[in-house]
Task: structure prediction
Amino acid sequence: MVEQMDLSMVNWARAQFAMTAMYHWIFVPLTLGLSFLIAFFESIYVKTGNEEWKKVAKFWMILFGINFAIGVATGIILEFEFGTNWSNYSWMVGDIFGAPLAVEGIVAFFLEATFFAVMFFGWDRVSKKFHLFSTWMVAIGSNLSALWILVANGWMQFPTGMAFNPDTARFEMQDFWAVLFSPVAIGKFTHTTSSGFLYASLFVISISSWYLLKKRHVQMARKSILVASVFGLLSSGYVAFTGDEAAYNNARKQPMKLAAFEGLYEGQRSAGLVAAGIMNPNKKVNDGQSPFLFEVRIPGLLSLLANRSPGTFVPGIKDLVYGNEKEGVMGAEEKIVKGREAVKQLALYKQAKKAGDSVAAQTALDRFNQNQDYLGFGYLKSPEEAVPPVSTTFYAFHIMVILGGLFPVIFLLYLAFALKDTLVHQKWLLFLGLISVFLGFVAGQCGWVVAEVGRQPWAIQDLLPVSVARSNLTVGAVQTTFFMFLAIFTILLIAEIKIMLKQIQIGPEGR
Amino acid sequence: MFGNLDTTVLQQIWWIIDSLVGSLFLFLIFVQGGQTLLGQLGKTSMEKSLIINSLGRKWELTFTTLVLFGGALFAAFPKFYATSFGGAYWVWILILFTFVIQAVSYEFRKKPGNFLGEKVYEIFLFINGSVGILLIGAAVGTFFTGSNFTLNEYNLVFWTNPLRGLEAAFSLFNLSLGLFLVFNARILGAMYLINNIDFSGYEAMEKRTRRAVLVNLLCALPFLLYVLGSLLFMDGFGVDPKTGVVSMVSGKYLSNLLAMPLVLIFLLLGIVLVLWGVVTTALRGKNSGIWFGGLGTVLVGLTVFFIAGFNNTAFYPSKADLQSSLTIYNASSSHYTLTAMSYVALIIPLVLAYIVYVWRLMDSKKITESELMGTQADEMY
Result:
């Protein structure tokens, strides 16, 4: 099945997907959060009748619209890349993965698309209340679409509610609700959307801070900051809570990812959490070298984070690769043996079925079933291949966490000074707020790096490695489309930034 | 309810649903058709603004319908999704590319500091409306002319032509279907603009638009006739219902039409409705042509998808290896997924209802010059 696989093509396909997703994630979190902020602003306007709030809502709506368009443009590529670059994946799991994408289209995208036109062009065409309703529908539709795509992503991280069909050699859905309500899927949705709310709040605070520093549109900026700081503060608390939940889920479903983002090579009881550290770039899984050149650990905290109990064992990369009998950890080495047996028995089963030998087919099927949980490992060439890029995952995780700790402080300070009405005098805070949107961007991107790089080499955790998931394409074809999309996305990003800066410079005057 | 249905019935239901979504997309590409008319109908900046703002309130519906079409095919017929997208790589990549550049063009075109300039975004819109739709037509054409792929025992797709799907555009039938779609989209686009814009003070533009409806019909007709004539006489990819063996059957699509009289009625009624839409818009000075043309297009679209997929026919046939051809029965998801998706599909009437409601609400007043020059001028496209 994988004899002809070209790994360099796989890496280009991965790079292309990563690049598209990273561009997409510049715009989407803003859409998720800004849509709700606009709905809040407009709700206050409808409730109070104060035209100033309408002006606030309309100003942010302009920026929302510019951002929304390019989010749509990058999103369509992501959906269809599953087919173009990962066609074997699409066939093997389309039965399960396709369903949330279709539901996303039916339930969420049309809500967004239909009411978007009212939100932007309906001010004088529909009643005030119907306009507000439309704005809320856009916000709900945007976030509903996030639900379904994140359910799909959550399923890739923790495949559940399905069974492998040896006749068609693919996975088939058995329980829709198990897919929808899997703890990983729900965790993904809540953590990701709340991080989007946080990012959008930083965006509003950043631009408003610039206005306050320039002493322009002061009333609008103050109003915007007041709402955004409350929304951001609540969101950042929720991001922390769901982040903790995600780590707990990782410990159960993706222990290798947890070990990678903590740089934990040797499993430990009362494992400490690395507060800060520099990784040893020469470290190999089993070379006995220290993984860190420098580290500051908080004792017992990783065990607490992973298992909600400080004295418990957290497996390290070495345990997960070579096994740890004492702690009951099966390593990739042993799983590969079982996986290869599953692959072999699947081929024997298909041969026997073709030859009409039902006894041999049943024997092969029984043996396959005993090993099918390790099917994906059968395609790995060595146990070390089960290890994701550790340094990348480690740094991304720690940058995300450090920034995640900074954001609630920023929101709290903004809220406190806004309530005291002394914000305009806090120049240092306004400068911090101004750059905070870039920090939010970095934190969001790092989050996705942890989630996706940290689960390599799997397209579907433990069941389908990326090398088997890909399409049968030449390296040249994928390279060409990589650079094609890189060029167009970059051009469009430059255009978006220039337009947005111009609109910010113009401000809400005359609107 | 759906769980008790036979898998075959569910597969047919999902082919009908996908066909309906695909056919609605063929109607909604009036947006793309309108985009290609921008330079021809809009002679001044304000005339162009009227066109862009009229189309710009609908482009997302078309875009979303395309995304749903892809998602629904992925969920219901994953083997098709994997085979076609992973195999006919270049044709799909180019189609997607044209939709990427469309998505930003409405929003960015008039905005100050837009980096590329107004003209470039207009060219983007033209490329999307012409190349994008032509290639979609060519891709649909392969439902009848076949593609160059084989599937191995694990259903991995191997494409046997180095052009990876672009070769479809070099078939006269596929090319004709693509060109017909482009011209039909232009007919629909012009009819939509007539319906949606208040031409007071822009009578010359109105005249040009009504004329464009007729001219584009005349352009579309030869291609339509060629496609129809070919369909009636060409060999098709038949499937033996007992063995699943695929073979070439002479006059297959004609026999499909005759075996499904309702589909034949759809085809004839669809063509008549489109023609009536053109007549009523171009010659009788009415504004309602888009509804006739739109419904007619949906009916013709349903005909295309139904004769490709029903009556023991391979809807995604392989020229390279007949037995690799895909049917709605061998390419579908499992019974469970089709059942679950059928329950989700129950929401579609509600979705259609709110789309129609909002459409009527928003379009109850036509787009006017004064709207584009009023206090909200800087919020318009």
About this structure: Chain B touches chain A through 76 residues (CB under 8 Å).
